[in-house]
Design brief:
The protein is α/β, with parallel strands linked by helices and 359 residues long. The protein contains twelve helices and 14 strands.
Length: 359
Amino acid sequence: MASFRRLVQTSRNVASVVLRRQFHKTPSASAQVTVRDALNQAMDEELERDERVFLLGEEVAQYDGAYKVSRGLWKKYGDSRIIDTPITEMGFAGIAVGAAMAGLRPICEFMTFNFSMQAIDQVINSAAKTYYMSAGFQSVPIVFRGPNGASAGVAAQHSQCFAAWYAHCPGLKVVSPWNAEDARGLLKSAIRDDNPVVFLENELMYGVSFEMSEESQSKDFTIPIGKAKVERQGTHITLVSHSRYVSFCLDAAAVLAKEGIECEVINLRTIRPLDVETVEASVMKTNHLITVEGGWPQFGVGAEICARIMEGPAFNYLDAPAVRVTGADIPMPYAKILEDNSIPQVKDIIFSVKKTLNV
């Protein structure tokens, strides 16, 4: 009996050692990172790398940002690099543009891009046009960033997507990241760019975690502006989207795959310049195209993609008309049930795919 007890105890000790070894084993090089933390890391590293970089906006300093994207930066860099501003978008956007013209590299945060309408003269007439109007003499290295598009329960004046608005204007680069890797790599590229960049984040994506590789966590990691990414390979139909709706497309593709329909999902990443070549290559393979966005249909990002496909070599490969899945052509309602019916849902994408493929 005593020998049996010793055997049991020995087995327990061995199991305990194995468990401890498993618990203390070297973690995987990849990590789960939220979009919020990816943006924070990108700004932190660029502030550290280049003393010309600074952040200004409403509540970005002592309050750590309205959405905590700038958390910890004020304590680390102080008042001269992380600057709280009054509630006057036209004023602090103008200060930022002037600072960029003087050789600094400001990051101008709008608490929401709906409020950027107050500063659109500074963004378009001052930042976007100066390099051209100065015959290439005066660059304006500035990033305008903040949440864009529909949030939840904030109604019409806080739920507009400005991707098509700003992408319409020559002189601007317009970036719309989806996951943490996009947010980190593209923001670093935007801060380093010598042109004004409009960086459209999504409030509902800030707290979402994504796996990031060891490479994408490097301080040297950047993603080139103007290059889309194929997030899922497919053969039957191409789904093109940006920002939060890439997730919707991937969810729809997973459901459709169970029915034998393989969707290729493209994450645009950048709205201007638009990576038409990646979309064309996919359409030539799948022979079908659906664009998905949260903005309004008229003159939207999807409308531009459809026009480019019609005008280019991929048009002859289409076996059915290209289709747009967009937000409803109305101001955003406040009631949740109406709000849900005003922006694309996974079921809407699935319906459009089946209708386009006639299945």
